Amino acid sequence: MVRVSASDREHARIDHRPTPLASTLSLVLAAVSTLLLVSTPGQQLAVLGTLLGVALVVVDGRSLFGLDRLPTYLLAAAGVGLVVWSVAHGVTAVAEFGARAELVPGLVGLVLLGLGVRPLSQRFARRFVSAGLAALVVGVLLAGVFQRAGPTLLLAAAASAVVAWDLGEHGIGLGEQLRADARTREVELLHGGASASFGAVLVVAATLLFAGGGRDLPLSVLALLLAAAVVLMAALYR
Amino acid sequence: MTTVRTTGRWRGVVAIALFAVAVGVLVDRPAVVLVGVVGAGFAAYPHLVGPPSVDLELERRLDDRHPSRGDVVTVTTRLTNAGSRPLTDVRVVDGVPPMLTVAEGSPRHAAVLRPGESAEFTYALDAEHGRHQFDPATVLVRDVTGGHEVETTVADGTEISCADPVPAVPIRQQANGHAGRLVTDEGGSGIEFHTVREYRPGDPMSRIDSKRWARTGDLTTIEFREEHRTSVALVVDACESAYRARTEETPNAVAHSLAGVEQVLSALGDTRDAVGVAGLGREFCWAAPGVGPTHMARLRELLGTHPTLSSTPPAADTDEDIERQTEMLRKRLGSETQVVVFSPLTDDRIRQAVRTLEAAGYPTTVVSPNVTADGTLGERLARTERANRMHALRNAGVPVVDWDPEKALGTVLLDEQQRRWSA
């Protein structure tokens, strides 16, 4: 009302951005997903550089470590520059097509996820995060197709991509409903912890399945089994 | 009011499983097919747990229940899991009274609650004039996977009252048989001198003008102004169109009206006047005029809980037959009842309702919170329309108090009264 001065209003401006903890964990897990697949130091540098760049873009405009507002646009510009450099470095560092195929979708996924949790647009935040997951999964599948990582690593990368999406989406929901100034840490940690544990169980179970008999099983039978399971899932959702 | 729903947030994961299996089969790579296991597993994940059973209790503590205007009131809300299951994702938005703004902290909180455990959060409110009831807190509980969501409300009848005396209640000159504080133009017994008239047999001896009798020998009787009690029905216009606000951050007109009713109610509660409350909107809401603390408590409860008298707008397709509701109100009003309508006058139907009541012989006054702005063309049009409605009502003999909600209602009414006396 009348007594709210301009600066108060600025301070009280409703911040519906995704919660910081879930966003951070989500980005880190997405980077881990790609790091599990790549092998050369050049590629790893590219992933870490992209992560850092995306993190700068995400942090931009938020209050952090007691600083009220970090210098806007400066950080974002630095982040974008870093991302561009990292992607270029990742592409040029290796000549092989397979190596590029496993790295580039992962980097694109990381960037999309970052745009989702920044968020670039409140309305499309979830779309960006989902697109990020899709890109990460494409990276995992390409790594599998070009046989650049073992089954356990593939599984772990896929699981961490899914958990990264889960955390990102959860953080967006919390930000929408409770705003970024509410205390949401425990809920985020518990949710992320539960998803990550479930992912770990899945990876271990699938690895055991593969090592214990999956290798001898004809591919078509394995595929049929999985397809049946998926159809069952789809039917459950309807 | 509890709703259980599935969020369907894991639905897309099925696509990963299908895609991985398809690609794996296509390029003949068992390891890629195996990735499908992760997709299928996460698709099954939300089905491993059912919707949470929610049993919550809420308690609010205020550091000052009777602040003065501008004071900062600290609210501590404690949410307790009274059920036997742990709740892993509890999100609560406290029902801050619509007229109050949060000065510090957040009325929103998320918590993990084991059985019997409670979460506490604190925020501060700027006190405004009037009595403010807290709305029920909205609580959203999700299971650990986020697949199911339970939305519910938890109430705790807390209120803040910030005294704002309304010295002049907008009641019109009108008389009935009961003694009260409304000073009428009729002569009789009372305090204030009215007239001297010829003695009629049966006049009380104490009212005979003895000095005149001693001087002239004529018997005359002194009459005083009679003071009568009045009966007032406070009507809130809560039609869908009344939920207008000047900007998105400011309270809407119905919130202002309800605050105004609360203030007038407090003022009338100290007198012997009978007060009732009615609401026009979603459905007809009515409490007949009465007196006494019990009646006042009942009215306050009605104001705080009746769905029609809510400060959140109804769904867009709500059927509001104002004409029929006015008719119901007219039938329920006693013959000597005055009507005070709180309405932003954003709708022609309410103007019609006021004219109907006035024509039916109930002295009607309109208190109109002004929530119009003059930014866009549409806003200016709305402002002109409202001015026209006020003008039409005044022409029909209905006093209209134009209330700018940034001023205290008491001041506005006092100004209005002085203006009318001097006019």
Descriptors:
heterodimer, A: 238 residues, mainly alpha, B: 423 residues, alpha+beta, 6-stranded mixed sheet, 5-stranded antiparallel sheet, 9 helices, elongated
Q: What can be said about this structure in brief?
A:
The complex is a heterodimer of chains A (238) and B (423). By secondary structure, chain A is mainly α.
Describe this structure in words.
By secondary structure, chain A is mostly helical. Chain A contains nine helices and no strands. Chain B has nine helices and 19 strands. In chain B, α1 packs antiparallel against α2, α4 runs antiparallel to α5 and α6 packs parallel to α7. The two termini of chain B are 53 Å apart. In chain B, 43% of the residues are buried. About 1% of the residues of chain B have low confidence. The chains are: A mainly alpha (238), B alpha+beta (423). At the A-B interface, α6, α7, α8 and α9 of A face α1, α2, β4, β5 and β6 of B.
